[in-house]
Amino acid sequence: MKYFKLPDLGEGLQEAEIVEWHVKAGDSVKADQLLVSVETAKAIVDIPAPYDGVVAKTFGGVGDLLHVGEPLIGYEGEGDAGTVVGRLEGGAEGQADSFCIGAAPSTREHLAPRATPAVRQLAQKLGVELADLKGSGPDGLVTRADVEAAAEGARARFGGEKLRGVRRSMAINMARAHAEVVPVTLFADADLHRWAQARDPMVRLAGAIAAACAAEPLLNAWFDGRSLSLRRHAQLDLGIAVDTPDGLFVPVLRDVGARSAEDLKEGMARLRADVRARSIPPQEMMGATLTLSNYGTLFGRYANPVVVPPQVAIVGAGAIRQEPVAVDGRVAVHPVLPLSLTFDHRAVTGGEAARFLKALVEALERP
C-alpha cells in the first residue's frame, strides 16, 4: 500500500480535524480530485489527491484529529509507508526483545509497558499513564486506540466539553505565550476631539500603528533560537483580531502603511467576511508583524492583551467614551480612546515601548 500523508498546512498548523470525506475505499481518484475537507485552527482546508489511483483505505473518521505526516489515504499498490508518528501498523517495533537480568521469566512487573515510540509520545501528550493500561495488541502491546480510549474515559469522568479547532488552538497558544513571553503592558488615552466622527476607529488605528512603527520601530531579532518579529522597516503586516462564535481568529492585513484609508476599510471588511465564512486561506492568517485587538467594540476600557510568539507586541483598543478633560485650565468633554500596549520585554525595552505608544497616540490625535 502506498500512503499519502497529511501535508504541511502552513506555519504553526501541526494538526487538523476531519470535517468530511469525499472519497471512500474502492474509489478511483484522479490527481487534484478533492479527497477530504479538514478544519485547522485557522480555516477549513480542502485537500486534493496527489496523483491518480484507487483508494485502498482512508485513515480517521469525521471529528478525528490527524497530525502533519500521519497517513491520510492508502492507495492500492506497493510502496514504502515510511515511519509515521502515531500511525505505525506493525513492523519490528512490536517485536523487540524484552528481558531483565536476574528476573524470573514469570516476573512481568519489572517490564516497562510495551508500546511503540509514537504511542509513548501520544500518551505523554494526552497525560495517560501507560503502566495503567492493558495493551490490546500482540503480546500486550499498548496501541494508539488503547491510549485514546483511556484519555476519552478520563475526559468522560471529568465531564465538560473537549476543546477542538479554534478554541484548542487558543489554549495551546496561550500556554505557549505564558511559558515564553515576558509581558509588560503600558496604558494611554488618545483624545479624538479633532475627528469629524469619533467612532469605528479601526482604519485610523491601523494607519496610526503603521505611522508609529515608522517613527519608533521596535525590533526584529533572534533570541534563544527564536525569531522575534516586529520588523525595522516601513511595511506593516497587521493581524486583526476577529471575534466569532467559534473563537478568535487573527487574519493579516498586508502592507498597511502603503494603503489608502478606503483600501484598508475594504480589506478589513473582506477579511472579516472570509473569517466568518471559514473560507480564509491559511496563508492569510500568517506572518503578522503585530496584532490589533479592538475589544472595545464588545466592552471594556483597558486590558492586558496577550503577545503570541514570535510577535513581540499587541495593541488593544477599548471602547470610546465621552470623558472630562482639562483644556487650557478648563474642563471640557471629549471622546477618548483608551489604549493598551503589551510588549515582550525580552526584545523591547521600556523606553522603546513608551516612545512607540506616544507616537501611536500622536498619530491618532491628528485631525
UniProtKB/TrEMBL annotation:
The UniProt record lists the Peripheral subunit-binding (PSBD) domain at 114-151
Q: Name one GO cellular component term.
A: cytoplasm
Cofactor(s) needed? (R)-lipoate
Q: What is its EC number?
A: 2.3.1.-
Q: Which InterPro entries does the record associate with it?
A: 2-oxoA_DH_lipoyl-BS, 2-oxoacid_DH_actylTfrase, 2-oxoacid_DH_E2_comp, Biotin_lipoyl, CAT-like_dom_sf, E3-bd_dom_sf, PSBD, Single_hybrid_motif
| Molecular-function annotations in GO | acetyltransferase activity; lipoic acid binding
The kind of enzyme this is, by top-level EC class, is transferase
Domain Lipoyl-binding stretches: 1-76
Pfam families xref list: 2-oxoacid_dh (PF00198), Biotin_lipoyl (PF00364), E3_binding (PF02817)
Q: Which keywords are on file for this protein? A: Acyltransferase, Lipoyl, Transferase
Provide the transmembrane region boundaries: none
> Would the keyword Acyltransferase be found if you checked this record's keyword annotation?
yes
User: Which PANTHER family is this protein grouped with?
Assistant: DIHYDROLIPOAMIDE ACETYLTRANSFERASE COMPONENT OF PYRUVATE DEHYDROGENASE COMPLEX
The entry sums up its family as follows:
Belongs to the 2-oxoacid dehydrogenase family.
Record protein name field: Dihydrolipoamide acetyltransferase component of pyruvate dehydrogenase complex
Highest classification ranks of the organism = Bacteria, Pseudomonadati, Pseudomonadota, Gammaproteobacteria, Pseudomonadales
